[in-house]
Design goal:
By secondary structure, this protein is of the alpha/beta class. The chain has a single domain, classed as Purple Acid Phosphatase, chain A, domain 2 (4-Layer Sandwich). The protein contains six helices and eleven strands. Helix 2 packs parallel to helix 3 and helix 3 packs parallel to helix 4. The N and C termini lie far apart (45 Å). GO terms for molecular function: hydrolase activity.
Length: 248
């Protein structure tokens, strides 16, 4: 008799999802100054609602890629990640996933790393740099470098001259219980060093909010959970962007 543990690391199906999809995004949007993307978050355990979100995005069309800001799982179980990956693979466009606080439970971070990739990563879409960060400091007892300023410093040192704008994605926003709020203002100072910081997106709070946390004009857009059947859509134009809440 063979027994399987819910927290094992023997992944069934596709791995390194983010890397492959980033290649697709960067190739498709190379040289473009206008594009649209969607933000979805906190799909944990709401599989039917996530399938409906995927169907809605495919039916409405007009988006170039999707950013999932984390909490694919509720308990960090391998099967949760695999199920979410399989649903998101139904998208007609590429997607990337960030690490959420629930994704860190048990062996969740290791499963996330194998299926999706590193928890801090970046990619370019046209002339826009997307920075995707692990901000779940509480899950690591504040013992790890979260947010990872060394990662941001390396990005700054190796910026392409073609980058004109920057968008930052994370799971837990500043001043949430997950964020390392001792360095919240330092975090914002780092982000503002990047070219043309447009806005930030995050999830975790299971609500729709728009916050100017630092009173500096940089807006943080929170995406709600799949249970509430809504996602965000952003359209980047050359000199502005449009923001929309899409209910499905």
């Amino acid at each position: 008799m063979i027994e399987y543990h819910p927290y094992d690391l023997d992944i069934d199906g596709e791995t390194e999802v983010n890397a492959r999809n980033i290649q697709r995004i960067e190739t498709a949007l190379d040289g473009k100054k206008e594009f649209s993307f969607a933000v979805i978050s906190d799909t944990q355990r709401w599989y039917d609602e996530t399938e409906d979100a995927v169907a809605d995005m495919n039916e409405k069309g007009g988006i170039d890629f999707v950013v999932h800001t984390g909490d694919l799982s509720d308990f960090g179980m391998k099967l949760e990640f695999e199920k979410q990956r399989d649903i998101l693979n139904g998208l007609s466009v590429p997607y990337v996933c960030l690490l959420g606080n629930h994704d860190c439970l048990a062996t969740g971070k290791e499963v996330f790393n194998r299926i999706f990739g590193e928890e801090n990563f970046s990619f370019t879409a046209g002339d826009v740099l997307f920075i995707c960060l692990n901000t779940n400091a509480l899950e690591f007892d504040y013992s790890d470098a979260i947010p990872d300023f060394s990662f941001l410093e390396k990005l700054l040192k190796n910026l392409s001259p073609d980058i004109r704008r920057t968008i930052v994605a994370m799971h837990a926003g500043p001043y949430s219980e997950q964020f390392n709020n001792n360095v919240a203002r330092v975090f914002q100072l780092y982000l503002r060093q990047f070219p043309g910081l447009q806005f930030c997106v995050y999830g975790h709070g299971h609500s729709i909010q728009v916050n100017d946390f630092f009173d500096d004009g940089i807006l943080y857009y929170e995406c709600t959970c799949a249970k509430k059947r809504a996602y965000l859509r952003f359209t980047l134009k050359e000199n502005e962007y449009l923001y929309e809440v899409v209910n499905y």
